[in-house]
Amino acid sequence: MQINELSNNPKLVIGVKQTTKVLASGHAELVFIAKDAEQHVVRRIIQLATEQEIEIIFIDTMKELGRACNIDVGAATAVIEK
């Protein structure tokens, strides 16, 4: 999946709390994490995704990830649900 396809995906979930919930429920297919997000914020998401062998795609900035998700603010994480 390309980053420019994100906003068109109906199973896109944006944000740290929501991404964590999707991962915890076992319904994650693909995780996006901004490289400039605070490490203490995304550490748990990286851990969960790694444990479940979910692919993580790192995006350069939160602003770029937010734009790809079609929101006006930056996003630290996003996830595609199964």
From TrEMBL:
Highest rank taxon of the organism: Bacteria
Transmembrane feature ranges: none
Gene3D superfamilies: 3.30.1330.30
Ribosomal protein eL8/eL30/eS12/Gadd45 domain ranges (all copies): 6-79
Pfam families reported for this sequence: Ribosomal_L7Ae
Listed InterPro entries: Ribosomal_eL30-like_sf, Ribosomal_eL8/eL30/eS12/Gad45
Name the record gives this protein: Ribosomal L7Ae/L30e/S12e/Gadd45 family protein
Species annotation: Fusibacter ferrireducens
